[in-house]
Amino acid sequence: MDIDLIGSIAGLILAHSAYIGSGQDGELMVPYVIFQSDGAREVQNFEAETQQDAVDAAHAAIAKYQGKVDAWAYAQEGLVTLGDGSKQDIYLIKAWAPGLVEPIQLYQMFHPKPFKLTGNIKILNFEDAGFKIDQAEQFHAALDSGITSHKKANEKWESWYE
């Protein structure tokens, strides 16, 4: 499994999602996927009548192309329930490359208007996806590398945090 590839594509899609969100003025982001093959990346957006239809179309595309790409990363907006019962906006990210048992899933909390990132990135299934705990530092470094590779988001990344 290529930890650097998985981490960097997850970081890139997270940075791109934040970049999109920073200019959306509170509007919902369209789910999208970045497919990577032989070093080339293709972004596919999934607009539909409903958010669920867009999510379903994105997952269908992932199923179609998974065996043909080196890696993919998926992003959508969602909500998590906090300990006090309130809801918090998140970017839900999934990323996959050969060697993973299942796509790694992570999320970043944010406030849509005015746009701000909140808290640290949360990884939901590190070991279940197929990573070993001693690979965490390498994965986090690759995630950071993916974030910084998005030049426009990287310029504003720190200023987006509360």
Overview in brief:
The protein has 162 residues and is an alpha+beta fold.
State the shape: globular
Give a quick account of the main beta sheet: strands, pairing sense, barrel closure.
6 strands, antiparallel
Strand order of the largest sheet: 2-1-3-4-5-6
Could you say how many structural domains there are in total? 1
Structural class of the helices, strands and pairings? alpha+beta
Weakly predicted, low-confidence segments: none
Strand content: 25-35%
Helix count, DSSP H or I runs of 4 or more residues: 5
Q: pLDDT average, as an integer?
A: 94
N-to-C span:
35 Å
- What Rg, in angstroms, do the CA atoms define? 15 Å
The helix/strand series, from N terminus to C terminus, equals: HEEHEEEEHHH
In total, the number of strands is: 6
Helix content: 25-40%
Describe it.
The structure is a single chain. The chain is an alpha+beta fold. The chain has one domain (3-160). It has five helices and six strands, in the order αββαββββααα. The chain has helices at residues 3-22, 51-65, 126-129, 136-149, 151-156; strands at residues 32-37, 40-45, 71-81, 87-96, 104-112, 115-123. It has a six-stranded antiparallel beta sheet with strand order 2-1-3-4-5-6, with helices on both faces. Strand 3 (71-81) and strand 4 (87-96) form a beta hairpin. The longest helix has 20 residues, at 3-22. The protein starts with a helix and ends in a 6-residue tail after the last helix. 32% of the residues are buried.
